[in-house]
Amino acid sequence: LKKNTIQMNWTLIGNICRSVSECWDSQRGDESSEQPFNFPQICPVQLQHGDKLLMSADETLKSYGIKLLNVSKDNFESCSATGQREDQFLLPHNINEREQVDARWLMPGHRYFIALHEGDTQLCTLGLRLNVTVKTQLCRSSPMLRLCSGNGVCQTGVGESAFHCRCHHKYSGRFCEKFDACLDNPCENKGVCLSNGSTDPHYRTYKCLCPPHFTVNCSEIIGKANCDSICENGTCLQISPASFKCICDTGFSGKHLLF
């Protein structure tokens, strides 16, 4: 199964955010920043564990030469590279072409990266820093199955620690594996819908317990003769294929049966 791929372009004029309200993860449709900030940075992103993250630089920065460093949250906020080690760099060389971030930097949790030029952190203070939230993916029971059984969307929200299934209409269950044909109650005229438990929406997966004299989805009267037999002392008037009432004879009264 193809994993999601998120591409970040490091540029001084493109996707730099300077306040929480400006930060929006266009890949997921969620506001990604969980903490307020008052410094410029590349818009934060949220990833599922297992997603691919690609980094690239515009032509100006390629010629300038930048390297990416993994840092702590405090060093991210202060743009500090104090005590940097070679094994903290995402790549041993400057970013020249589109580069894929190694999976070891994208384990579940919060990850913080800053850009350096020959050890200088000025690029970071201008906004070339990125915080990434990597979340556990809980949208399928097996790698061989489709996300959310193909019946929903794998999504997350601000503050949540994982991606979960948001099921399409009439589907439920942790992986949207359950189909409920009775959710909208297709049985008319106060009929009761009973689901047979089938998960295949292409087959009839329910039956209706109908009031007397109704059939199919409780929408059809069982013949005009039966309609007449309902009214003991009167005439049955069929209003529509799904409704009727009794017109009482002179001297008789009672509740008109109107569904």
From TrEMBL:
Keyword terms: Disulfide bond, EGF-like domain, Repeat, Signal
Disulfide bonds: 148-165, 167-176
Domain EGF-like: 135-177, 178-219, 223-258
Any one GO BP annotation for this protein: heterophilic cell-cell adhesion via plasma membrane cell adhesion molecules
Any single Gene Ontology cellular-component annotation: plasma membrane
Classification via SUPFAM superfamilies: EGF/Laminin
Name assigned to this protein: Eyes shut homolog
Species whose genome carries this gene: Neolamprologus brichardi (Fairy cichlid)
